[in-house]
Amino acid sequence: MNKPRISPFLFLLLFAYMVIEGSFIPLWILLFSLIHEGGHLLAIRLLGGGIRYFQGSGQGFGIGTRALSYRMEFWAAFAGPLTSIALAMLFLACKQGIFFYINLSLGLLNLLPIYPLDGGRMLRAILIETLPLHLQRPILQGIGLLFILPLLALAFWQFLASGYNVSLLFVCFYLLGLLKENGNDV
Q1: What's residue 4's pLDDT?
Q2: Strands 50-57 and 60-66
Q3: What is the rounded CA–CA span in Å between residue 93 and residue 87?
Q4: Which end of the chain is more exposed for a tag (fewer CB within 10 A), N or C?
């Protein structure tokens, strides 16, 4: 594996968010995101795959793999959310509410079938195994959009109800950008 690359922009973004929020929650989110990615890395190794790179940026983390079948890709993608949800259950049992919510949110958000999130990678692996190439991209994008639109409506409602909370709106616009940008990767 090449040396892990983590963009300095990620740390600048984290610091800015911590100043704006006035809390250490963004730092915890970063830590639990790294543990989530560790779930992927462990699964890739256990499945016999190779790791070409690990990188982090203001847009998230990415792992480049080699020698994984689409079935193995499905399980490697599932390992991250599974790790986050298992941690959430552990923190729930220990009555650590904020850590429970952070990990549950990471796990559930990453299970959304929006490529290149983990759920989108899982869906892509299924589509590649079952459908002809010309149907894969429109189905993957359509399902992704089907999940983003209600989330976007919820984000607008949350913003209107709170008068200030735009974090879910940012997530939705980011996901829409991912959907558009990665539509040709299928």
Answers
A1: 64
A2: antiparallel
A3: 10
A4: N
Q: What share of the chain is helix, strand, coil (3-state, %, to 5)?
A: 70, 10, 20
CA-CA-CA-CA torsion sign (80, 165, 159, 99): positive
Token readout for 84 is 């986050």
The span from the CA of 97 to the CA of 93, in Å, is: 9
Residue 178, pLDDT score: 81
Alpha-carbon distance of 41 to 14, in angstroms, equals: 23
> E strand or H helix at 65, and its extent?
strand 60-66
Q: Mean pLDDT score of the chain, rounded to an integer? A: 87
pTM, rounded to two decimals: 0.83
Compute the C-alpha angle 86/7/46, nearest 5°: 40
Cα–Cα distance for residue pair 18/21, rounded to 1 Å: 5
At residue 124 the predicted structure's pLDDT band, cuts being 50, 70 and 90, is very high
Distance in angstroms (rounded) separating the CA atoms of residues 63 and 81: 15
DSSP state string for 120-181: HHHHHHHHHHHS-HHHHHHHHHHHHHHHHHHHHHHHHHHHHHHSS--HHHHHHHHHHHHHHH
Six-digit token string for 150:
């209600």
